[in-house]
Design brief:
With 54 residues, the chain is an alpha+beta fold. The chain is built from three helices and two strands, in the order βαβαα. The N and C termini lie far apart (25 Å).
Length: 54
């Protein structure tokens, strides 16, 4: 079965991370929305990568 891609189309990083907390022990594919990336920057991508490695 193919995993869905979850779009992180949130206005800020705290909203996105709060949403992602529902999926703590699951492996996900995510797409960071343009508004979120412009607001949070590369630090959000680093955080998401860190969460997958821990």
């Amino acid at each position: 079965m193919t995993k869905p891609i979850i779009a992180l189309d949130f206005p800020n990083a705290s909203s996105a991370t709060e949403f992602l907390s529902q999926f703590e022990n699951e492996s996900l594919y995510v797409k960071v929305g343009m508004e979120l990336y412009y607001q949070a920057g590369a630090s959000l991508l680093s955080y998401l990568l860190y969460c997958t490695l821990v």
